[in-house]
Hints:
Elements (H helix, E strand, L loop, with lengths): L6 H11 L2 H18 L1 H4 L2 E7 L2 E6 L2 H22 L6 E6 L24 H10 L6 H21 L9
Parallel strand pairs: 2-3
Antiparallel strand pairs: 1-2
Helix pairs in contact: 2-4, 5-6
Amino acid sequence: MSSFTSTKSLIPHFAKSYGFDIKVLEARLQTNWAQIVGESLASHTRPDSIKFRKLFLLAENSAWLQQLVFLKPMILEKLNTFAKEAQVTDIVLRIGDVHSSTLPQGEGSSPSNHLVNPTGPAIELANSWTADIKEPDLRAILSTVIAKCLTLETQTTPPPPWAQP
C-alpha cells in the first residue's frame, strides 16, 4: 500500500505536465519585472510572453531595442536566477507598447478584468482563504486572483432588490 503524497508536492508536477509552469512564470515576470531587471530598464521594456523557451520582450523604441541586444546575456541570467530553473534559453526583441498589460483573457471575460483593483474586504477574504498555502509566490498569485474575482463579481452582479435605494 502506498502512502499519500502532499498536495504541495503535486502542484509543480501538475503545472509542468500541463504547461501551466510557463504561464505562471509569465505572470511572475510581468508582476516582478522591475525587481528582476531594475526600475530603469523596466520602465522601457515589458515581458510579453514565453514560447518555445524564448522570452518575447517588448522595447519602447528602436534605441532601447538596440540597447537590449547588448543586455540579453545579463537579462537571461537574471531571468533564470529568478525562475530557479533554466526555462528561458533566448530573448526575442520587439518594439511595442510597454505600458499596456498582456494578461490573457478567457472566454466571457471583459476586456478590463485584469485591470480590476481589488477592494479591501475582497483582499482580506482572499488572504484568509489562502493563508494555509506555504509557498509565498503561489499564495500571492492565488490571493490576487481570488480578490480580483470577488471584486469583479460584486461590480457585475446587480445588488439585491432590498439593497437598492
